[in-house]
Amino acid sequence: MAAVVDEYGSLMGMVTLEDLVEELVGEMYDEYDRVPQDRPDQEGSIHERLTGVNDFARRAGFELPPGRYATGGGFMIASLERTVHAGDWVDIAGRRLTVTSVDGWRVRQVRAEPMPGAEGPEDSH
After folding, report:
1. How many CA atoms lie within 13 A of 79 on its CB side?
2. φ and ψ at 98, to 5 degrees?
3. Strand pairing report for 95-103 and 89-92
4. What's the pLDDT tens digit per position in 83-110?
5. From residue 108, how far is each of 71, 74, 111 by CA, in Å?
6. Which residues pair with 71 in a beta bridge?
7. What whole-number distance in Å separates Cα of residue 26 and Cα of residue 7?
8. pLDDT tens for residues 22-69?
9. Which residues contact 59 (CB under 8 A, 6 or more apart)?
10. pLDDT reported for residue 120
């Protein structure tokens, strides 16, 4: 734990190791946190705060190809090969992954929804 002070030495707040790690890799949950649950909407889409890539892929209903990423947001960045913005999407395995929320350069939320009749090659926008 570290104390954050301003230039006058006044205490501004506290920072934990968990706070630092979450800034680097994304939200982490422990036994004291309330974990947001996936809720399918009317179209069968899921909205999920990005956690580990395996958990995201399992909840979205497909497997992501191997790569150098640890989260669904990392997959989006690797697939698009650029900084992503809200509304950017990638089609994969009959699903469309759409970025719905970003915080600076970090992907905060992705929507995964089925694509009817989409068995073609991967595409992105």
Report:
1. 23
2. -120, 130
3. antiparallel
4. 899 999 999 888 888 888 888 878 878 8
5. 10, 11, 11
6. 52
7. 29
8. 888 777 766 676 655 555 455 545 555 556 777 777 777 778 888 888
9. 38, 46, 48, 112
10. 46
Q: Which of 93, 39, 100 is nearest to 61 (CA)?
A: 93
Tell me the Cα Rg of the chain.
17
Tell the residue number behind the tokens 């009959």, with chain if given.
94
Tokens 């190791």 belong to 17
Q: How far is CA 90 from the centre of its chain?
A: 14
Q: Is 87 helix (H, G, I), strand (E, B) or coil?
A: coil
- State the residue for tokens 């209903």: 61
For residue 125 the two structure tokens come to: 């926008």
Residue 25 has which token pair? 């890799």
